[in-house]
Amino acid sequence: MEREVIFMLMSNEQGSKRAAQVDFTRSGWQQFAKLNRKLGARFIRLVTAESVRAGHPDKFCDQVADAILDAHFRQDPNARVAVEVFATAGKMIIGGEVTSKAEVDCGRIVADAIDRIGYTMSDLCGDPHGLLELEVCLHEQSPDISAAVGKNELGAGDQGIVVGYATSETEEYLPLPVVLAHRICRRLDELKPTTPWLGADGKAQVTVAYENDVPVAVTAVVVSLQHDAGIDHKSIHRFIGKEVLGKVLPRELLKEDTSILINPSGKFVLGGPAADTGLTGRKLAVDQYGPVAHIGGGALSGKDPTKVDRSGAYAARWVAKNLVAAGMAKRCEVQIAYAIGKSEPVSIMVDSFGTGVIPDGRIEAAVKAVFDLTPAGIIRDLKLNRPIYSRLARYGHFGRTELELSWEEINRKYELLSAVLKQSARQER
User: Fold this and answer.
1) Mean pLDDT of 301-309
2) H-type helices in 212-345, by residue range?
3) Residue 159 contacts by C-beta under 8 Å, 6 or more apart in sequence?
4) Helices (H), 219-355
5) What is the distance between the alpha carbons of residues 82 and 150, in angstroms, rounded to a whole number?
6) Is 371 left (phi over 0), alpha (psi -120 to 50) or beta?
């Protein structure tokens, strides 16, 4: 069960302040927050999110898996792909199920990913003169799964629960800590080609204080970045402060007591798979919404869109974003459940966290009236049988304003509002 820590500052009758720290479930916090807003209480809620750079070993694996998917889609839009990638010092394994007419050179895809990320052989093998051994273990999709998915009425490629989330607090419709953590990692990767001492691996973490659900301060920033042995810690600090944090963090949210931690463990010379084993699907919170929203549990990368872990997650985000853009809620979470081989969702749930202008049940009814959430409908409406996925395997799959992503389009808000009006008209009769 997800829990949040709430810091509450209240004034007693004598006017002095006392601080209390309380651990609540999400629903418990909502009730408590409503009560204390009536009492004039001031709530400070701390929310933390992280991102990782393109050279993080897990993200390396995600990028290779999605590049393999893209390579198949360039030749065969009907390809069925479910690929997993494992990388450790000197060894990489690509495994999974592929049914496709395409001919794909996995070795070339791995080499291109290494070049794009900027890995050295030390990053890959722990030895500048080492060799990376690649093993490819791919076979056709299970006939049982293929039969369940079907050819006419496309059924879900697996059972699954997917979650979409949106909030009005940023232009990306994402929680601010998530946005800022991604910005830091993207900025580091942009600087790498012109910064000789900067390695490919690294991650960032940002904590934001919310007062009554409004971001009021960045309270802590943690940046861990790979570097050459010859660079001193002070130089790294100056560089990160000036060239990274000073460029991407909102100045109005930085306070005198904001905690800035750069490489808190000390040195970070050895990185990549040589330092830490990588695997597809291990950065689910980074790929989605951080700790703010629930996560369905299925990974996104390496899967074609018949797998609802991927297509359903995109659709749920599309729905949630349009609901918030339509003004029906300040933030909301959309949960959709599927059964393998069945096209219609088992369930659809909307949670507006008390910010909805109408009851959540009426919002759900509008969603069902406007969106076709069958796998076939999602793939058709979002145009998912395209080679668009390798760029998503870093900096998150949502809120990517630099990419033209179909599930980020705000194109159903008026239909949602119309559906609500029709509901009201029927109720009045």
Assistant:
1) 94
2) 233-239, 246-248, 284-287, 308-325
3) 337, 338, 339, 340
4) 233-239, 246-248, 284-287, 308-325
5) 17
6) beta
The answer to whether residue 141 sits within a structural domain is no
Same domain, 164 and 305: yes
Asked if residues 198 and 227 have their Cβ atoms less than 8 Å apart, the reply is yes
Strand ranges (E), 188-302 = 198-211, 214-227, 254-262, 278-279
Tens-place pLDDT, residues 63-122: 999 999 999 999 999 999 999 999 999 999 999 999 999 999 999 999 999 999 999 999
> Which strands sit side by side in the sheet containing 80-88, from one edge to the other?
133-139, 91-99, 80-88, 278-279
Using an 8 Å Cβ cutoff, are 122 and 308 in contact?
no
Is position 62 within any domain? no
**Domain hosting residue 418, numbered range:** 160-168+299-428
What gap in Å lies between CA 384 and CA 388, rounded to an integer? 8
CB 339 within 8 A of CB 156: yes
Residue 245: C-alpha distances to residues 205, 261, 396 (Å): 12, 11, 19
Helix (H, G, I), strand (E, B) or coil at 352: coil
- Do the domain assignments include residue 410? yes
H-helix or E-strand spanning residue 416:
helix 413-428
Q: Tell me, yes or no, whether 97 lies in a domain.
A: no
pLDDT digits (tens, 9 = 90+) for 120-162: 999 999 999 999 999 999 998 666 555 556 554 676 767 789 9
Cα separation, 416 vs 429, in Å, equals 21
Phi, psi (degrees; rounded to nearest 5) at 105? -95, 95
How many separate domains does the chain show?
2
For 286, the 3-state DSSP assignment is helix
Q: Check whether residue 311 and residue 164 sit in a common domain.
A: yes
Helix (H, G, I), strand (E, B) or coil at 224: strand
Structure tokens at 421: 């009006």
> Distance (Å, rounded) from C-alpha 5 to C-alpha 44?
9
Angle, helices 375-382 vs 308-325, to 10°: value is 60
